[in-house]
């Protein structure tokens, strides 16, 4: 078994023990990005940049083998030649690549993400780890602390990673966010043992390092941060907490007086916007059968309160509700004329299927596959910008793109349900308001859906 000593900590810990090389952002040595056109350097007045994720070479490592078909302009959502709607999609910030340099069972892995991304592979190939890393970055971008995001940090450390002389071990993850500024890279190094803390972070765009942090003094709960200024001083230095993502804190620390500072703020905003709008969907059929409080609010990750959400959304957008009924009609056994919630007493409501012949079937009678299918269809049809009630005029359009993460997307679904759900996902993701990344056990079930980007993981 190959072993590797933990070498994430930075600066004064010792020679050569830096979180990232001083000259460039960390990148897997086996994958070379295409040469960057100097004209693509990030500027606030530049035109939307077309994502380069489709042209990125697949990862070559023992942990994963990536096969990426060339997406059509409509599938990628990044082609300005596809008309005004395509240009609008290119304006939206989105995650184009996830990097697992050293995380759980993954090493030197680069995974491209499109509007509809399916992670395929057998049990133990690391699909759950990929989605967990994505969710972790999203929560950090939203301002969560490390201990909230990583309750068991030791599980994120590669199994064969050996501690250094001070007993330190850790992990490294990162991503690329595409959007109006072009590709913006974020990479972070986290020490998991003996204490959980960020030991290095780098935000870069167009070959320029915009933010870099390093842990200089282990006795202090801060990291030394330096960000691009572009004025009389090349960089600004300050201390940031070692339990938060520095990129998410930049809007509170950078004045924005110089062009360089505005460039830093724009890149940080694009990264945070691309990451933070994530909904992890893990339907729990055993909880969906029970009535839900009518004031349960937004849909939870387990979809426990699906009945309450149906109670609210059925009256808010008749068109989208009709699409939901059509989807449920395909995925549930027997005739379906309507899907709605009805009072169940004590301030609760229960979800039912109207069979159209006077019969109403409560969700408590449906099978696990039917319940999972109905929940996933509802999620795809109720993302930001889809239902009128969820649209906020004061929120930038880019913030209204929701990324849905689903582990075990195909669990409990029969071939008809799988095909119908994938077709619905392809149509909704093509519009640009919602993105879906799901893990499946076998790529064969996806059929001929052209909008899906398949990423194969192997043990």
UniProtKB/TrEMBL annotation:
Residues 50-85 have a biased composition (Low complexity). SUPFAM superfamilies: P-loop containing nucleoside triphosphate hydrolases (SSF52540). Residues 1-85 are annotated as: Disordered. Residues 26-37 have a biased composition (Pro residues). Keywords: ATP-binding, Nucleotide-binding. GO terms for molecular function: ATP binding. This is ATP-binding protein.
